[in-house]
Amino acid sequence: MARRTLSSTLTRAYKRNLKALTKATLGSGKRIATQVKRAAVKQLKPPPGRGDWLAGAALGPAGARRWHLYRPPGLQLAPGEKLPLMVMLHGCGQTGRDFAVSTRMNRLADRERFLVLYPEQDRIAHPQGCWNWYERRSGKADAEASTLMAAVDQVLLLYPADRERVAICGLSAGASMAALVATRYPLRFKAVAMHSGVAPGAAKSPATALGAMRGQNVPPMPATAVGKAMGAAAQFTTLPPLLVLHGDADAVVSASNATSTAAVWAAATGARPGAPRVQQRGKRHPMTVTDYTRRGATAVTLCEIKGLGHAWSGGAASMLFSDAAGPDASRLVWAFAQRQFRLGQAILPPP
């Protein structure tokens, strides 16, 4: 009898605990679902601006990737007129909307009349939302680059974007992916900008990515080794001019990657560095600017920003990975791209 009573007591205790655990689990699940729903609603909400925030998705070798296109308000195009297209690749821990808010590129697009494409990394492809720029050995990096080009081609087909005036830019992992896309499809872009990214060719797998971020695994600089560092597509071909922006106080991606990137790109194009010059606007962080040229054409412009960490220079103060005290990177990127659109030149490979 005592044994039966003990058994009944244990059974009731077990049921109570199971009920409590189930309730707690369901409550946790509801909270997680609520958080996911709120994040989804936030992502669908357009960033500040009077223009259109148009949604789409592209399918490629890496699967499907969502994108948003910012179209300035009140566009009245002349017959046959097409607008420049700026492709913006966000960094780890960001979404396309976050990047739009941080960089305020849309505000510039309103004034200068250009379209802005914000591709979105899928969290299934990377839990932190990073572009897999380093997965070259497995082929994942090239697959994502091809899928990004599918997004660009989709926008060129559906909207009045000028395929002869396309530039690509990114921050951190987005910067490294922008460089990879540009080296794989060099004739599709008139300009490329890397902000706080890793030097092209510095990593081929997850095991080497962290070392590359610390400034290790620097790719070889001689022109004969450029194909190995940047990939066969970047050897013996034209490359779009490159703008490199990096803070000297970056604790996430070593600032040495900036000089390595400039050196690799210069080796691929046969460009040589000119005399560095210091520029500062008001009380913003000063920067040292070095142009790498060949036959009078600029192949690389390197901007090393003093006191800037791992953040978009001149970005919105309220956002992560954004430093309002730096020079306005969005203006610098657009001015660089606009200059290349106007010149319409490509940097030929060295003889």
Write the layout of secondary structure elements.
Layout (H helix, E strand, L loop, with lengths): L1 H43 L7 E9 L2 E9 L11 E7 L6 H8 L1 H8 L2 E5 L20 H19 L2 E11 L1 H12 L6 E5 L10 H8 L12 H5 L11 E6 L8 H14 L2 E2 L3 E3 L7 E8 L2 E9 L6 E2 L8 E2 L5 H15 L8
Parallel strand pairs: 3-4, 3-5, 5-6, 6-7, 7-11, 12-13
Antiparallel strand pairs: 1-2, 2-4, 8-10, 9-10, 10-11
Describe this structure in words.
The chain has 351 residues and is α/β, with parallel strands linked by helices. It has a single domain, classed as Alpha/Beta hydrolase fold, catalytic domain (Rossmann fold), CATH 3.40.50.1820. It is 38% helix and 22% strand. Strands 1, 2, 3, 4, 5, 6, 7, 8, 9, 10 and 11 form an eleven-stranded mixed sheet that branches. Strands 12-13 form a two-stranded parallel ribbon. The chain is globular and about 90 Å long. The termini are far apart.
Features:
351 residues, alpha/beta, Rossmann fold, 11-stranded mixed β-sheet, two-stranded parallel ribbon, 9 helices, 38% helix, globular
TL;DR?
By secondary structure, this protein is of the alpha/beta class. It contains nine helices and 13 strands.
Which value, in Å, is the CA radius of gyration?
Answer: 24 Å
Strand and helix order: HEEEHHEHEHEHHEHEEEEEEH
**Using DSSP, what is the number of strands?**
13
Overall CATH class:
Alpha Beta
Please state the structural category: alpha/beta
Sequence stretches where pLDDT stays below 50 over 5 or more residues:
31-39, 220-227, 232-236
Number of domains: 1
Helix content: 25-40%
Largest sheet: 11 strands, mixed
- The span between the termini is 98 Å
* Overall CATH architecture: 3-Layer(aba) Sandwich
